[in-house]
Amino acid sequence: MVQNVKTQHTHDTTRLSHLEATAAVGDVPTQLLIGGEWISAKGGRTFDVMDPATEEVLAAVSDGDIAEAIAAVDAAEEAAADWKATSPRRRSDILMKCFHLMNDQAERLARMITAENGKALPDARSEVTYAAEFFRWYAEEAVRAPGELGPAPAGANQIMVTHEPIGIAVLVTPWNFPAAMATRKIAPALAAGCTCILKPAAETPLTALAIGEIMRQAGVPAGVVNIVTTTKAGPVVSAMLHDKRVRKLSFTGSTGVGRRLLHEAADQVISCSMELGGNAPFIVFDDADVETAVAGAMVAKMRNGGEACTAANRFYVQKRILAEFMRRFAEEMAALKVGPGLAADTQLGPLITEAAVAKVERLVDDAIAKGARLVTGGSRLGGEGFYYLPTVLAHVSPDAEILREEIFGPVAPIIAFDTEDEVVELANDTEYGLVSYVFSRDLKRALAVAGRLESGMVGINRGVVSDAAAPFGGMKQSGLGREGSNHGMLEYLETKYIAATW
After folding, report:
1. Strand order in the sheet with 37-39
2. For this structure, is 264 an active site residue?
3. Annotated catalytic residue: which of 116, 275, 332, 384?
4. Quick one: DSSP state of residue 239?
5. 443 with 266: CB under 8 angstroms?
6. Quick check: is 275 catalytic?
7. What is the spatial distance between Cα 258 and Cα 201, in angstroms, rounded to a whole number?
8. d(CA 314, CA 411)
9. How would you classify the pairing of strands 196-199 and 168-172?
10. Any residues with CB less than 8 A from the CB of 220 and at least 6 apart, and which?
């Protein structure tokens, strides 16, 4: 077994980490953003935001309820007509200013993300760069709304096709990428001419509120973007989905919650974009460059500490190179320095909550009980904070729960395979279909396998696929619709056909 030895989790570093985390939060707004104003929840209700590295409170944030949610819809409705009539160029200029302001405040935002999410600071910095890029991309897309004009086949009239804003959008974002998931929804909504209400995750509301203030500074008009923080996500979102003025839902989160929201949205026939769970296969053929494959595995598995829907969840390695890949991969995993995300040389921070650690622990224990061999890791890190060591499991049984569930943690189960047909069948044997990874020196083979994989995205010889310019989304129960690229703005536009004679 490869031993983990690089940890930094002493009492002194924990105390220092919390002081740094509190400083990172600074003077971020902690109220609701409704109609361009920061307002408190009725009765002064608040909830605590916790530092995952220390289990201590960072800040108290206003806890909105149904009344505040409907007030946010009111504000979005009041702003809707003017924002729809705002020229695409003006919308573009405002979004570009958001991009520049976000970059100007990048380090502050990164430290805030780490403080409330726990991820290592380099990961947080990468997220801020990625998040800001959605503002720039949709600043450019705002002036490129599509349209068509042409004669009807019979020659009797002209066919005109235009696109107009779909209407008020409810945006529900998760805790794992608190900046990027917010901008990936807000930016295309605004580019299309929609007003919106953002409901961020209760675990990480501070980043969303900081972005709300940046948008105010950039000149986003009052009511165009509203933010409702709440611990009552179900009733609050349900109330908005049953308001006839709301016409769009964009949700990122678990497949289970996504199914329930689709049921809710059906009552008002609301357009839905759903970015749901994943169970990504990571396939390494025996003709792959092992060094490249291991480097890709580290990114695909450990980006964001494994707490990503795109994280490699199942590692399938062809038998001839299994031993070499496993050895080198386990050594890389064991060498990661674990500790508070704000510490200078931390590479893996804590998970988001105690429940997240308990889930990872349960999946690893089940796999070992069913015959898996622990190569490295396999336990919590003692002391305060929600830590779990980087873990590699070998010889994982096909009936292990870890191959069926989304792990959302720093654990890599490895399974050997013989043939291409076998691994494609194994990779597709899941209800999910978000992303897959294929490593091979033979591009023809890699592309052929990519075509057979039931996933909305495929990375070939690389461990990351996300890009603001690319359509992000999945097949099967990994979701509906796409985010990013020109496809992302189309999700917020209605198509209108006009038959005209002149």
Report:
1. 37-39, 32-34, 225-227, 196-199, 168-172, 246-252, 271-275, 479-480
2. no
3. 275
4. H
5. no
6. yes
7. 14
8. 10
9. parallel
10. 94, 98, 190
Q: CA 52, CA 56: separation in Å to the nearest integer?
A: 8
Per DSSP, the three-state class of 32 is strand
Report DSSP state, residue 381.
Answer: P
Alpha helices in 142-204 (DSSP H): 180-192
Q: Which of 263, 258, 352 is nearest to 308 (CA)?
A: 352
Select which of 20, 133, 309, 384 is catalytic.
Answer: 309
**How far is 10 from 381, CA to CA, in rounded Å?**
11
Q: Look at residues 2, 11, 14, 1 and name the one whose alpha carbon lies nearest to residue 346.
A: 14
Ordered per-residue pLDDT tens for the chain, 502 residues: 776 545 555 555 666 667 888 888 888 999 999 999 999 999 999 999 999 999 999 999 999 999 999 999 999 999 999 999 999 999 999 999 999 999 999 999 999 999 999 999 999 999 999 999 999 999 999 999 889 999 999 999 999 999 999 999 999 999 999 999 999 999 999 999 999 999 999 999 999 999 999 999 999 999 999 999 999 999 999 999 999 999 999 999 999 999 999 999 999 999 999 999 999 999 999 999 999 999 999 999 999 999 999 999 999 999 999 999 999 999 999 999 999 999 999 999 999 999 999 999 999 999 999 999 999 999 999 889 999 999 999 999 999 999 999 999 999 999 999 999 999 999 999 999 999 999 999 999 999 999 999 999 999 999 999 999 999 999 999 999 999 999 999 999 999 999 999 8
CB distance 65 to 42 below 8 Å: yes
Rounded distance between C-alpha atoms, residue 488 and residue 112, angstroms: 27
Q: At 136, which helix (H) or strand (E)? A: helix 121-141
* Spatial separation of the C-alpha atoms in residues 399 and 489, rounded to whole Å: 41
Q: What is the four-CA torsion angle of 61, 98, 468, 282, rounded to 10 degrees?
A: -30
